[in-house]
Specification:
Layout: E1 3-9, E2 15-21, H1 25-34, E3 38-44, H2 59-74, H3 79-89, H4 93-107, H5 112-117, H6 125-137, H7 140-186, H8 195-199, H9 205-239, H10 242-252, H11 258-279, H12 284-294, H13 298-312, H14 318-324, H15 329-341, H16 344-399
Antiparallel strand pairs: 1-2, 1-3
């Protein structure tokens, strides 16, 4: 729950300062009035816990922490003691500091969800809301266990994606480095050797072009690299704006071959988050608000937001999702049937599992095709360089 710093006057006219937890500034004012305080100013408090610096713990470490906390609570260990045990046993400096802050907040009577909420860089909004629902519904251990499972699945998804793309990226970097080294250090050594052939007009066009490109790279390569860095910095700045992110997400969905992969993975993330939160008793409108951000694509997020508006008006979820055009027809049909049978939470998780399996099969196929293609391109480039240098040498040998 958000906190608000206030300055007020009591009945004796003395100045009083403090912090109050409330859903909104209006609620904070109402609380102060109920305490016979006359507010002078009420502003959102800077959450010191959220300003803890340091290396963020990995998703796998957070998943382990959630699971261990759930195990301790299931064994009958009180929450305060469970947090203290986790704080003392962790070797991660930032997580130790965060757990220490959570422990002190729990001692003051703050709920676990509110204590988590003070560290948005560590605990996502989904985890906070699931823990809140578990605490209010009396199933905190189950909620923590499900958060652990979800976090571990997301880390596995991220790891598989990076693992699939690691080798093609490695090939691209190595290939670019090899070609750059050839152009900058190897090819120029032949320039003076071919001066006579150039003067006689017998230098092959491919060799002439290669020598020109090598000279251009040596003379102007650093400027091209600098321009590329500046363009990259500009694009990065644009991606920090809402409009830039929206354009990038829209283009990502239209990339040949990979567009459907990005789309299906975003839909799978949305379905998994929504299904997990509904299973933990979080209201559907709140679940939609969180899960649309978890999708990681603003185009899909806007479509989900429109679906939320329809649900608040009493309509179904499947209709507006189908109308957006970004959700596969099979997914929409399964959601429609699940809404009718009141099994949306279970079906959404099943949809996420199926989408991820199919998408990774397709991603594996694309990567398998990409690897020999990149090797072929690299071999062709090196072959062109070698041929361009060998043809004049052969001509000179024949002349001699």
């Amino acid at each position: 729950m958000p906190e608000f710093a206030y300055t007020a006057r009591n009945l004796q006219g003395s100045r009083v300062e403090g912090v109050v937890s409330a859903n909104s500034e209006r609620d904070a004012l109402a609380q102060l009035t109920g305490q016979s305080l006359f507010p002078v100013s009420v502003t959102p408090a800077k959450q010191s816990g959220g300003l803890i610096k340091g290396r963020r713990p990995s998703g796998q470490l957070l998943a382990t922490t959630y699971a261990q906390m759930a195990g301790l609570l299931s064994s009958g260990v009180p929450l305060l003691r469970a947090v203290a045990v986790l704080r003392d046993q962790t070797s991660h400096a930032t997580l130790k500091e965060v757990l220490a802050d959570i422990h002190s907040r729990l001692e003051e009577g703050t709920s676990l969800a509110d204590a988590f909420g003070r560290h948005p860089r560590i605990f996502g909004e989904m985890a906070v809301n699931m823990v809140r629902a578990g605490g209010e519904g009396g199933f905190l251990e189950d909620a923590l266990e499900r958060v652990a499972q979800f976090t571990e699945q997301q880390e596995d998804l991220k790891g598989r994606t990076l693992g699939a793309l690691a080798y093609p990226i490695f090939l691209g970097v190595v290939g670019s480095t090899v070609v750059a080294a050839l152009l900058i250090f190897f090819v120029p050594k032949f320039a003076t050797l071919f001066d006579n052939l150039r003067a006689q007009g017998q230098l092959p066009a491919v060799t002439d072009w290669l020598l020109w490109f090598s000279e251009f790279t040596r003379a102007w390569g650093w400027i091209v690299a600098l321009v590329a860095v500046l363009v990259g910095a500009w694009l990065r700045a644009q991606l920090r704006t809402e409009e830039g992110r929206l354009i990038a997400d829209r283009l990502r969905l239209r990339v040949p071959l990979l567009g459907s992969v990005f789309q299906n993975l975003a839909v799978a993330r949305f379905c998994r988050v929504l299904g997990t939160m509904l299973k933990n008793g979080v209201p559907i409108l709140k679940s939609l608000e969180i899960s649309r951000e978890a999708a990681g694509n603003r185009v899909l997020s806007m479509a989900i937001q429109r679906a939320s508006e329809n649900i608040s008006a009493g309509q179904s979820l499947a209709g507006p999702l189908a109308g957006s055009g970004y959700f596969p027809r099979t997914v929409v049909e399964m959601i429609a049937v699940a809404e009718e049978s009141n099994s949306l939470d279970r079906v959404l998780v099943d949809i996420a599992d199926g989408l991820e399996k199919r998408t990774f099969r397709r991603l594996d196929l694309i990567v398998r095709l990409l690897e020999p293609l990149m090797l072929l391109v690299l071999a062709i480039v090196v072959l062109v360089v070698v041929i361009a240098l060998l043809i004049p040498v052969i001509k000179m040998s024949a002349t001699v």
